[in-house]
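Hi R.,

Here's the chain you asked about this morning:
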Amino acid sequence: MRDVNVSHTIAYGNVVDTASARSMVATPLLNAVNSDALPNEGIVVISFNEIQYILESISGISALTSKVWYGTDGIAGGSAVFGSATSTQVAQQVALFSFSYVGDRINPNYNRQNLLD
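And the predicted structure, written out as tokens:
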């Protein structure tokens, strides 16, 4: 990736439902986002099936859903994003990309609004 600066990392344990995703991922992530004033923030999420619960846990949190989210091969190779109507809707809202599909063309993301329309 080019021109990407990492400001925070969050490691989480065993996410088994939306409540655990909220406490282990969404809340710490919200705290990290609120602590910085970076205008071009994006969120890279490395996960597998727990992505459903992570997306559900950020539903309605505009500080997180207003960012572009980027996935990795664990997300691209699975169907957990579509595990619920909420996770599907949030994935669309955050324009969840996977590096497997977009290569290094992630910054800036000129086509985000087209993807959300």
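The first strand starts at residue 42 and ends at 44.

Let me know if you need anything else.
M.
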